[in-house]
Specification:
Blueprint: E1 2-5, E2 15-20, H1 27-40, E3 45-47, H2 50-56, H3 65-84, E4 88-92, H4 98-111, E5 115-120, H5 124-130, H6 135-140, E6 162-164, H7 171-184
Parallel strand pairs: 2-4, 2-5, 3-4, 5-6
Antiparallel strand pairs: 1-3
């Protein structure tokens, strides 16, 4: 978890921006750009990076469906608590299963906390070319199994608030599109 800024006062409105997509889709890059912009404007922001969460909050979990669900629920709880308390929580997490993401959405709805789901809809072949962490190369070499979107399922959101075709736009443009949704909803 990375604290990026604090905006004082009673008008601070929290929300969760959940960026879901395949590995190497651009989720973290977009989240960090958005977080930087929000910080520069004085908002209270947390970027809950999926890799950081897995190392610390979800250490010891594997990649079974049950463990992935547990990881997503933990992140969803932290994000909802932050957002409920006036923080803009930006969450770049694969979250491959629709039912896990729906449970996070319902947690937010139950507390009246704004939740924006963004599908970082980068095609698997583009993600494989980017291969930021070498996962696709390891999977192709037979050194890794269970790679989301290749040999493990990814269930795209059916009705996200925003779809980002990152192969057609820059990270800056993607972050600006997410910002525009926040502005449209009166959250920034």
């Amino acid at each position: 978890m990375t604290t990026t800024a604090r905006k004082a006062g009673p008008r601070a409105q929290g929300a969760t921006v959940w960026l879901t997509g395949l590995p190497s889709a651009g989720k973290t890059t977009i989240a960090r750009r958005l977080g930087d912009r929000l910080k520069a404007e004085g908002h209270r922001v947390e970027v809950l990076d999926g890799d950081e969460i897995r190392r610390f909050l979800s250490a010891g979990l594997g990649f079974s469906r049950e463990d992935r669900n547990t990881n997503v629920q933990r992140i969803g709880l932290v994000s909802e608590v932050l957002a409920r308390n006036g923080v803009l929580s930006v969450v770049p997490v694969i979250a491959p299963y629709a039912d896990s993401r729906e449970a996070v959405r319902k947690r937010h709805e139950a507390s009246g906390t704004p939740y924006i789901e963004v599908h970082v809809a980068t095609p698997v072949d583009v993600c494989s070319e980017r291969d930021v962490k070498g996962l696709y190369a390891r999977q192709a070499a037979g050194q890794l199994s269970g790679l989301t979107g290749v040999d493990d399922p990814y269930e795209p959101p059916e009705a996200p608030s925003l779809v980002l075709p990152t192969q057609l736009q820059t990270p800056r443009e993607s972050a600006a599109a997410v910002y525009a949704v926040l502005a449209e909803r009166g959250l920034v």
